[in-house]
Write a structure and sequence with these properties.
With about 140 residues, this protein is of the alpha+beta class. The protein has one domain. About 15% of the residues lie in helices and about 35% in strands. It is built from three helices and seven strands. Strands 1, 2, 3, 4, 5, 6 and 7 form a seven-stranded mixed beta sheet that branches. Strand 4 (about 65-75) and strand 5 form a beta hairpin. The model has no long low-confidence stretch (mean pLDDT about 85).
Amino acid sequence: MDKHVNLVKLSVGTESVDSLATWQSQYRRTLPEGLPRHVTRMWPKRESELLNGGSIYWVIKGLIQCRQRIMRLDEVIGSDGIRRCAIVLEPEIHRTNTAPKRPFQGWRYLKPEETPADLPEGREQEEPLPPELSQALADIGVL
């Protein structure tokens, strides 16, 4: 398979994967295509790698908990005249194994080998482990 890269982004103000899904569902109703998107100031320099199978991994309450596949990048000109990038996402949210992530601003690239695996079928509704337990398990190489 060709090379791809992912993004990781804090989902600010989100309490859970379900609240992210609810917020996106409400927001999507206001958009012409009805597809979720995240608008950012910076245009990813590694666009071709993102569009070659990349996802955005959402950090909720200090843990990577889910991902969405990136469909495309659209140019958006804000009311201030500034060019921005809309990261257009597939609507389906895939829950992942949790992985601790310290706070950061904006988005970051996430190599495929550093991304948490999707939860196996049937485990998608499990609540994430507390951040301290996830960190302890990651420290000893279990997560």
